[in-house]
Amino acid sequence: MTILPDKNQIATIQTLLEDLSDLKCENNSPIPAMATALERFSVTNNQLVQLTRDVVFGRGTQLQNTIAEKGQYFGWQTLIVFLLSVLLVVLFTRMIIGPVKAIERMINHLGGQEEHFSPDLNVLRVLVSYVH
After folding, report:
1. What is the pLDDT of residues 113-124, one digit of tens each?
2. Fewer Cβ close by (within 10 Å): the C or N end of the chain?
3. Closest CA to 124 of 114, 109, 112
4. Cα 61 vs. chain centroid, distance in angstroms?
């Protein structure tokens, strides 16, 4: 997998490198043909660097968006599981507290406390089912 989408720029820079493999200078300066080749190499290299940066930035942005989407998906899943857990806790708490309150009322009635006892047939059925 290559980073650069344009093969022509790679070929151009390889050609320029071959041209610059044997530098020729006069009076401690490159001859005009070499100076032109160096300038073309510099421009092409800068374009290649900018193209590489653009491609890498684009892929980084795409990766960041993908990670954000996955995070949002798992966030929703976590919220649903949390709400389901709260619902189950409330449901089971109600299932436990209801019979306990009924037993407390019966105990209070048998103990002669002031609370008026009204028998609830459903509560009695639940208690009988627990006994058996």
Report:
1. 555 555 566 666
2. N
3. 109
4. 14
The pTM is what? 0.54
CA distances from 93 to 29, 31, 87, 99 (A): 90, 91, 10, 11
Q: What DSSP state is assigned to residue 6?
A: -
Specify whether the CB–CB gap between 34 and 23 falls below 8 A.
yes
Per the document, the length of the chain is: 132
Closest CA to 126 of 98, 91, 105: 98
Answer yes or no: are the C-beta atoms of 90 and 66 closer than 8 Å. Answer: no
Closest CA to 25 of 15, 33, 17: 33
What are the structure tokens assigned to 17, written together?
């490198």
- Separation CA 126–CA 117 (nearest Å): 17
Cα–Cα distance measured from residue 58 to residue 75, given in angstroms and rounded to the nearest whole number: 25
